[in-house]
Design brief:
Elements: E1 6-11, H1 15-28, E2 37-38, E3 46-52, H2 55-68, E4 75-85, E5 91-100, H3 102-118, E6 132-141, H4 144-148, E7 156-159, E8 161-170, E9 173-183
Antiparallel strand pairs: 1-3, 1-8, 2-6, 4-5, 4-7, 5-6, 8-9
Helix pairs in contact: 2-3
Length: 187
């Protein structure tokens, strides 16, 4: 059976939100750019569920389960503040957190997880920490000064859908291709 590539389910900011966040980051860090390889705004997303390569049959099952699932309604999401994985003193990832719509995003992730389980994949055990990756840092670096700068990242948008994405490794980093969209209900 042929592989379908490395897939994941995500929430993707709209163009207006991406442009606004990029402008706020550029303004906040014009004199002291964040370390590492910045993720291009077109690649920003919240990963709800990594699928790996489920194969064609597995992908068909996931698509069917998501189409049949009740994913809930649209909601507003907002960004605020920076964080780091695994920890600020030795960060490998710098990210933007969520201050509005976090509960709804977690509920959406749970509904997606339920649908993926119906499709025959095991539930993920790791906790879900909603974040938007801004920079990947190698080697790990202390990022406290960027976190303490507390930039104004208040960017808001309405989440209309879950997007099935395929990742491609390129020389310039990862690129993401949207494959399928699963609309949320309008209230």
């Amino acid at each position: 059976m042929a592989g379908v590539g490395r897939l994941f389910l995500a929430v993707v900011p709209n163009d207006e939100a991406r442009h606004a966040l990029a402008a706020r980051l550029d303004q906040a860090f014009s004199d002291d750019p964040v370390p590492g390889r910045r993720v291009p705004p077109d690649s920003w997303h919240f990963t709800l569920r990594f699928l790996g390569d489920p194969g064609e049959l597995g992908l068909d099952r996931v698509l069917h389960a998501l189409e049949a699932a009740s994913l809930g309604g649209t909601f507003r999401i907002g960004l605020s503040g920076l964080g780091a994985f695994p920890r600020p003193g030795k960060a490998e990832v710098l990210w933007a957190g969520v201050d509005a719509g976090e509960r709804e995003l977690i509920e959406l992730r749970d509904r997606v997880e339920d649908a993926v389980e119906v499709a025959g994949l095991e539930r993920e055990d790791r906790p879900f920490v909603p974040h938007l990756t801004l920079s990947r840092i190698r080697p790990a670096t202390d990022v406290w000064r960027w976190l303490e700068a507390d930039p104004d990242l208040r960017v808001r948008w309405t989440v209309p859908a879950v997007v099935l994405m395929r990742s491609h490794r390129r020389h310039s980093g990862m690129e993401y291709e949207p494959l399928e969209t699963f609309d949320l209900d309008n209230p």
